[in-house]
Design goal:
Blueprint (H helix, E strand, L loop, with lengths): L6 H10 L9 E2 L10 E2 L8 E2 L2 H15 L3 H4 L14 H5 L6 E4 L2 H12 L8 E5 L4 H13 L4 H4 E4 L10 H11 L3 E7 L11 H10 L3 E5 L18 E5 L12 E5 L1 H4 L41 H17 L1 H25 L6 E2 L9 E4 L4 H10 L2 E2 L1 E3 L3 E4 L8 H12 L5
Parallel strand pairs: 2-13, 5-6, 5-7, 7-8, 8-9
Antiparallel strand pairs: 1-3, 4-10, 9-10, 11-12, 12-15, 14-15
Helix pairs in contact: 1-14, 2-11, 5-6, 8-9, 12-14
The protein binds pyridoxal-5'-phosphate.
The site of pyridoxal-5'-phosphate has 12 residues, from helix 5 and helix 6.
């Protein structure tokens, strides 16, 4: 049988990896104990592409040389800068006019809920996963309050079955049927930030539509990580941040998806601003909002160009590589990581992990640890493994295809084997 955890295998996988040269296009932070950190938190903050500085410098130069004229006469005119991100559609499986980049994620969730959560006396419930990312919980909590509703009545949270960590699609679908015509909105993450579960977006969307509800997804951990087909799956809306898998600077801009059937309907209700106004008349400063067709009609403000320039640098790289190649390598990395982790706990009895990430997943592996968990995490940190600790007892690891290597994972495995408690 082939050895699935050897150094030779890791080296071979790196040699055969078509994306291997991309690592050198990123700043990998230096370690204290090794040349470079073993960086496994690309799901939290993606590393900086080396090209970012020049993309931002370009806009600074135009601002210096042209002032306000940069809006129309810069190299990348700011007036229509958001169109550089029409190709972001490829990352989430959408048409170009269904995607726009603007604001930050949580802001965009509120804007989308202003359009797609309009509760009535009889249809007012939101179904969501229990233990959602805190910002999403606060968004939903404050939205229902904003509409004068009571959380316990208006929000239906779905928990995993006893003894399980992931949600079963059949259980979510059953709950949607049960809530039925009271359900106004199904709001889920695409990939769950804690467990790493990649939800069956298509089935959940269909189930929501079958009871007459909208389906919206927070794709913060899905965009740039897993293959998405938001348009074909008939998702109503989605949003994501670009600083996780999409490497586009801390607090960077957010992407939004609005399905054509809503985006091309000027009557779809929304909160408006001048940047969402019909582009050809935007600077006529007239009364009466006429939305630009598509997701662009949800924009409020003129674009934060410096943050967007960072995103442009990253997106150029994603464009070059393509999601298919990334997803394929991501799967291999994840498989290798799982083998390494399992081997390490065979070899070192101080370790005991339960992998809580189900088979439907992207790059991330979440491991429930034993009583040595925090000591292990501190030991890893001291040895330059940048992972992520989530209370009460979970270590999350996300080797990402754009810049992580199979040797990163192998070296991590060696550290695991030599872990001992004091
Ligand atoms: C990272 C993340 C956020 C962060 O929101 P910001 O508005 O970008 O600070 C929100 N929701 C989910 C699910 C996330 O993973």
């Amino acid at each position: 049988m082939q050895n699935t955890t050897s150094k030779e295998l890791a080296q071979k996988l790196d040699r055969d990896d078509a994306l291997t040269q991309y690592r050198s296009q990123f700043f990998v932070p230096p370690g204290k104990t090794r040349k470079e950190q073993i960086y496994f938190t690309g799901n939290s903050l993606g590393l900086q592409p080396k090209s970012v500085a020049s993309y931002i410098q370009q806009e600074l130069n135009d601002w210096a040389a042209l002032g306000v004229e940069g809006h129309f006469h810069g190299k990348n005119p700011w007036f229509k800068y958001h169109h550089f991100f029409d190709r972001e559609a490829k990352i989430v499986g959408a048409h170009a006019d269904e995607v726009v980049v603007m604001n930050n994620l949580t802001v965009n969730l509120h804007l989308l809920l202003a359009s797609f959560y309009r509760p009535t006396a009889t249809r007012y419930k939101i179904i969501m996963e229990a233990g959602a990312f805190p910002s999403d919980m606060y968004v939903i909590e404050s939205q229902v309050k904003h509409h004068g509703l009571v959380y316990e009545d208006a929000v239906v949270e779905i928990h995993p079955r006893k003894g399980e960590h992931a949600l079963r699609t059949e259980d979510i679908v059953a709950k949607i049927r049960e809530v039925g015509e009271e359900c106004a909105l199904l709001f889920f993450s695409g990939v769950q930030y804690y467990t790493g579960q990649y939800f069956d977006i298509k089935s959940l969307t269909t189930a929501a539509h079958n009871v007459g509800a909208y389906a919206g997804f927070d794709c913060a951990h899905a965009a740039g990580n897993v293959k998405l087909n938001l348009h074909d799956w008939d998702v109503d809306f989605a949003a994501w941040c670009t600083y996780k898998y999409l490497n586009s600077s801390p607090g960077g801009v957010s992407g939004v998806f609005v399905h054509q059937k809503h985006g091309n309907n000027p009557k779809t209700p929304r909160l408006a601003g001048w940047w969402g106004h019909k582009e050809s008349e935007r600077f006529q400063m007239k009364k009466g909002f006429i939305p630009e067709p598509g997701a662009a009609g949800w924009q409020l403000s003129n674009a934060p160009i410096l943050a967007m320039a960072a995103h442009k640098a990253s997106l150029d790289m994603f464009d070059e590589v393509g999601m298919d190649a990334l997803v394929a390598k991501g799967k291999k990395l994840n498989e290798f990581l799982e083998n390494i982790v399992n081997k390490a706990q065979e070899d070192n009895k101080k370790l005991a992990f339960e992998i809580i990430t189900p088979a439907d997943r992207g790059c991330q592996l979440s491991m429930l640890t034993n009583e040595n968990g925090k000591a292990l995490f501190d030991y890893l940190t001291a040895n330059d493994v940048i992972a992520d600790w989530r209370e009460p007892n979970v270590i999350r690891l996300a080797p990402v295809p754009m810049y992580n290597s199979f040797m990163d994972i192998w070296e991590f495995g060696e550290l695991l084997k030599s872990f001992s408690t004091p």
